[in-house]
Design a protein that fits this description.
Blueprint lengths: L1 E2 L8 H28 L7 E5 L5 H8 L3 E6 L2 H10 L4 E4 L11 E6 L10 H14 E12 L1 H4 L3 E9 L3 E10 L4 E12 L2 E12 L3 H10 L3 E6 L13 E7 L1
Parallel strand pairs: 1-10, 2-3, 2-5, 3-4, 5-6
Antiparallel strand pairs: 6-12, 7-8, 8-9, 9-10, 11-12
Helix pairs in contact: 1-2, 4-6
């Protein structure tokens, strides 16, 4: 049995995300973002950057709502699916910490908690600075983050998985509250040319506090900072699970 380390064409992690999670995230998360886009008067035809766009399900839905959407993601495997799911989108392979796009966007969104994979506070500030530079004056940045309490339920148990004739996978989540670092470990077995191949993925995420996020946003110049729950309702000061932040340039 061979062990796969990396390959530009064989990317079962992107396949799992696309087949099991991408569309479901879009269904559950996007209504609150659509509500906020309307609340902030981001009209149809507006130019939107979908940061950490993944497999493009949210990108495509926004296009169907009449927006002009550019998707950006660091994973070529994810973008391969995004090209299929959102064929009319402009898609860019780049790092959220280092991208340089002109100040042409009416709004930037990052709906799927992809920014939790930014582990260091300084790197999160850098992402926010790049977003700030890409927005038009008075532009809106809407993004979702899993906060500390969300990850405290990760205790090392198997949280998801599936078994098929040619594919088996399992995801195990754990969290270190002292370091505020979570890990989701995914083991994938896939049948390739009559041989089972294995891929092990170990991704880290950071459980930021509300205060840390607000501090990072203010440090790069964002104003009018608001925090909502995952249904788009204003979150009180005790809410500390999955939050949606809205800010203006």
């Amino acid at each position: 049995m061979a062990t796969i380390t990396s390959s530009p064409t064989y990317n079962p992690w992107a396949k799992i995300y696309n087949d099991y999670w991408g569309l479901e995230y879009c269904r559950v998360i996007l209504p609150a973002f659509e509500q906020l886009l309307q609340q902030y008067n981001v009209a149809q035809g507006a130019n939107i950057l979908d940061l950490c766009c993944g497999t493009g399900h949210i990108t495509q839905h926004l296009i169907e709502q009449g927006y002009q959407v550019t998707g950006l993601d660091i994973s070529e495997g994810m973008l391969q699916y995004a090209r299929e799911n959102a064929p009319k989108a402009k898609l860019i392979l780049d790092d959220a910490k280092f991208f340089n796009l002109p100040s042409t966007f009416d709004a930037v969104i990052s709906a799927n908690a992809g920014l939790n994979e930014i582990i260091n506070f300084e790197d999160l500030q850098q992402v926010f600075a790049k977003v700030y530079d890409s927005l038009l004056n008075n532009g809106v940045f809407l993004f979702g983050l899993n906060l500390e309490d969300f990850y405290k339920s990760w205790h090392g148990a198997i949280s998801d998985g599936d078994i098929k004739d040619d594919l088996a996978w399992a995801c195990c989540d754990s969290y270190n509250p002292e370091e505020k670092i979570g890990q989701f470990r995914i083991t994938i077995f896939q049948m390739v040319e009559e041989s089972w191949q294995r891929l092990d993925i170990n991704n880290q995420v950071r459980g930021y506090s509300r205060t840390e996020v607000v501090t990072a946003l203010e440090s790069v110049g964002f104003t009018d900072i608001n925090i909502y729950d995952e249904e788009g309702n204003t979150a009180d000061s005790q809410y500390n699970r999955h939050a949606i932040f809205s800010v203006r340039k």
